[in-house]
């Protein structure tokens, strides 16, 4: 009954607004942060191939104590759950119809504000990730034991897919981590201080992600040379 009243009025019977949207925002940020940190480690993990197939296999063994390779399948399932939760929470922010899309576009053009334009790229890359990252995660969840040989085979067959996946992931995650900072931290200090700090963090953030992307592309060339 209470929920029905809130559904009609947008307020509860004691005239309070729901705290659920705020909780959803927090969970969306937290799940995004977990995925972004995971991705930085993932790039080091696949990038270990630059030191040879032995180095890549050692990293795999480290993650699978006792040689129980199903640990990787289970970890991938865990990441998939976080990924789906993150995407589900993000759907709330998608333009709901053509009118809403037009309103955002007009706003983006008028504002000529880099952060607003970046939000649009984050939306588009997030949409693509629904499909690309799901395909990859399902392959890992139901896949056999990860070995250098298996991954070399997959890289030589799917290099375009992996290249697109890494670009879309880095675009999404790098904008996402910058937005996390803007949303939860950047308002401390005076306006001038906050703006200067924001510009600095923006540069550091994009330099770190750019360096990881460059390293991954070098590693991809190594993967391909082994195929
Ligand atoms: C626990 C979860 C995950 C595991 C165990 C995992 C494992 C792997 C492995 C073994 C490879 C090497 C190629 C292959 O054998 O398929 C790979 C490549 C790749 N994965 Fe994942 N992955 C996971 C989650 C993710 C997620 C969530 C993303 C992005 C949203 C992602 C993006 C990529 C990309 C972009 C590549 C190609 C790397 C490159 O270009 O060098 N992975 N992954």
Automatic annotation (TrEMBL):
One of its GO terms (cellular component) is plasma membrane. The keyword Transferase does not apply. Its main location: membrane. It is found in: Cell inner membrane; Membrane. The chain crosses the membrane at residues 33-56, 68-89, 118-140, 160-182, 203-226. GO terms for molecular function: metal ion binding. GO terms for biological process: tricarboxylic acid cycle. Keywords: Cell membrane, Electron transport, Heme, Iron, Membrane, Metal-binding, Transmembrane, Transmembrane helix, Transport, Tricarboxylic acid cycle. Heme b binds at residues 42, 86, 136, 172. The keyword Cell membrane applies. NCBIfam families: PRK13553.1 (NF010072). The fumarate reductase enzyme complex is required for fumarate respiration. This subunit anchors the complex in the membrane and binds a diheme cytochrome b. This is Fumarate reductase cytochrome b subunit. The lineage of its organism: Bacteria, Pseudomonadati, Campylobacterota, Epsilonproteobacteria, Campylobacterales.
């Amino acid at each position: 009954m209470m929920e029905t009243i809130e559904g009609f009025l947008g307020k509860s019977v004691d005239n309070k607004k729901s705290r659920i949207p705020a909780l959803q925002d927090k969970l969306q940020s937290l799940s995004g942060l977990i995925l972004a940190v995971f991705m930085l480690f993932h790039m080091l993990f696949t990038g270990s191939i630059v030191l040879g197939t032995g180095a890549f296999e050692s990293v795999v063994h480290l993650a699978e104590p006792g040689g129980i390779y199903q640990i990787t399948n289970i970890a991938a399932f865990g990441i998939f759950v976080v990924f789906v939760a993150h995407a589900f929470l993000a759907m709330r922010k998608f333009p709901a119809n053509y009118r809403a899309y037009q309103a955002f576009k007009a706003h983006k053009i008028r504002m000529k504000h880099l952060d607003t334009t970046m939000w649009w790229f984050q939306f588009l890359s997030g949409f693509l990730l629904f499909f690309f990252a799901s395909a990859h995660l399902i392959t890992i969840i139901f896949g056999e034991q990860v070995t250098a040989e298996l991954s070399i085979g997959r890289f030589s067959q799917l290099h375009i897919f992996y290249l697109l996946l890494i670009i879309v992931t880095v675009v999404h995650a790098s904008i996402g981590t910058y937005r996390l900072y803007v949303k939860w931290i950047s308002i401390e200090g005076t306006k001038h201080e906050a703006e200067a700090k924001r510009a600095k963090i923006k540069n550091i953030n994009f330099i770190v992600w750019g360096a990881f992307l460059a390293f991954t592309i070098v590693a991809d060339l190594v993967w391909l040379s082994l195929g």
